[in-house]
Specification:
This is Histidine--tRNA ligase. This protein is α+β, with helices and mostly antiparallel strands. The protein contains 16 helices and 16 strands. The longest helix is centred in the first third of the chain and has 20 residues. The structure holds histidyl-adenosine monophosphate.
Length: 428
């Protein structure tokens, strides 16, 4: 027998039941995004590799270890996007959306990272991300965070998720911190692993991302970047905290939160759950005021976040198991006997035209009435329209309420009456 071809490790099918749960979650988030004035932007999945090495930083885990990079047929190095911010900035610059303008954009789609797969961590995963350009005050940072809090409220999961907040200061703050950090790391170089030694001078902040347990004790002794903030960064962060207090958003200042991508400055945040084990970060983001300039645009401040959809759906399913997205249909058409199938075919289209929002299916493949009713039940249809030879000969049909077991006969010469009747039944 031919060997079955299976999905690539870490990349999953989303089966219909799960897909409807994703739709449920996505619809609610998109609704909140548009209520805050965000517009959708659709971006390519494949980008030129230097976009990510420049934006994310070539000494980050994502760029060094996790990118799906390959040569296209002309030898150009391209990468499956590991995240959405870089592509969004690239598109904004390329299409003249950013300079001297205010933009609120959201995107959704697959991202790719070659990580070790486990529950909540995949090689193809999906994000909904949002980016704001052209605004630099702490008020937009607060607005964005308040909006993310609204997602959890709308989804009913606010009790299972908490906010961690930090400021990593300006680029100048980082430079100062780098010097201090390098000196400290040099003093302890014998404890560092090969990766950290390699990153120590070029990108010392990324040394702190290491998960190597042998170095955690050393990291705990190092003062966090928050202790080195300049006055402006302090002021920005304090104002943000006050606005969040005013809005009643609880948070924990976590001075160890630095994020694993190089483009951030100032505000960084993460929404974390304790309900999913190791992969608890549901939504993460921060400010990136130099990224547009770094990618060739005119300096424009930016701030954004991305939600990991798989983790969010896992969380909703875990803490609210009672949320099931109905898999039922509204109406199933059944026909058996001479001339009934064509009449059913026409009738189904007439009803679909009258009720574009209803879920309507008709029987395929013939079969006895009993068999067709059992198919209608399998689809958990609310109503059935039944056409037999008797009904066709008398130009009528039967509407059967499959929940209540009641039925009525309606003339087919009065389609408008039939439609009204259906509409009345469906409203009860
Ligand atoms: P990130 O922290 O790398 O940030 O990813 C954001 C979220 O994506 C994480 O909090 C997590 O929920 C989800 N995620 C990341 N990797 C995986 C994975 N392998 N499997 C499943 N879910 C995953 C960014 O991507 C930034 N672009 C966010 C941002 C937007 N910052 C500013 N604007």
């Amino acid at each position: 027998m031919t060997k079955k071809i299976q999905a690539v490790r870490g990349m999953h099918d989303c089966l219909p039941l799960d897909a409807s749960m994703y739709q449920y979650v996505e619809t609610r988030i998109i609704q909140v995004l548009s209520s805050y004035g965000f517009s959708e932007i659709r971006l390519p999945v494949v980008e030129a590799t230097p976009l990510f090495t420049h934006a994310i930083g070539d000494m980050t885990d994502v760029v060094e270890k996790e990118m799906y990079t390959f040569k296209d047929r002309r030898g150009m190095s391209v990468t499956l996007r590991p995240e959405g911010t870089a592509g969004c900035v690239r598109a904004g610059i390329e299409n003249g959306l950013l300079y001297n303008q205010e933009q609120r954009l959201w995107y959704m789609g697959p991202m790719f990272r070659y990580e070790r797969p486990q529950k909540g961590r995949y090689r193809q995963f999906h994000q909904i991300g949002a980016e704001v350009f052209g605004l630099q005050g702490p008020d937009i940072d607060a607005d964005l965070i308040i909006m993310t809090a609204k997602f959890w409220k709308v989804l009913g999961i606010s009790d299972y998720i908490h906010l961690e907040l930090n400021s990593i200061g300006s680029i100048a703050t980082r430079k100062n911190y780098h010097h201090t950090l390098i000196a400290l790391l040099e003093d302890n170089v014998q404890i560092l692993d090969a990766d950290c030694k390699r990153r120590m001078y070029a990108n010392p902040l990324r040394v702190l991302d290491s998960k190597n347990p042998d170095m955690q004790a050393l990291f705990d002794t190092i003062s966090p970047i928050g202790h080195y903030l300049d006055d402006k960064s302090h002021e920005h962060f304090n104002e943000l905290c006050q606005l969040l207090d005013l809005a009643g958003i609880s948070y924990r200042v976590n001075q160890r939160l630095v994020r694993g991508l190089d483009y951030y400055n100032g505000t960084v945040f993460e929404w974390i759950t304790d309900s999913l084990g190791a992969q608890g970060s549901i939504c993460a983001g921060g400010r990136y005021d130099t990224l547009v300039g770094l990618l060739g645009g005119r300096n424009t401040p930016g701030i954004g976040f991305a939600i990991g959809l798989e983790r969010l759906v896992l969380l909703v399913q875990k803490v609210l198991p009672e949320i099931t997205v109905p898999q039922s249909i509204d109406l199933y058409l059944i026909a058996s006997g001479q001339g009934t199938e064509r009449a059913m075919f026409l009738l189904s289209e007439t009803i679909r035209n009258a009720f574009p929002d209803l879920k309507i299916m008709r029987n395929f493949g013939g079969g006895s009435f009993k068999k067709q009713f059992s198919r209608a039940n399998k689809y958990r249809a609310r109503l059935a329209i039944v056409l037999g030879e008797y009904e066709i000969n008398h130009n009528q049909c039967i509407i059967k309420d499959l929940c209540k077991g009641t039925q009525q006969t309606v003339s087919l010469s009065q389609i408008s009456f039939l439609i009204r009747m259906l509409s009345n039944i469906l409203q009860t």
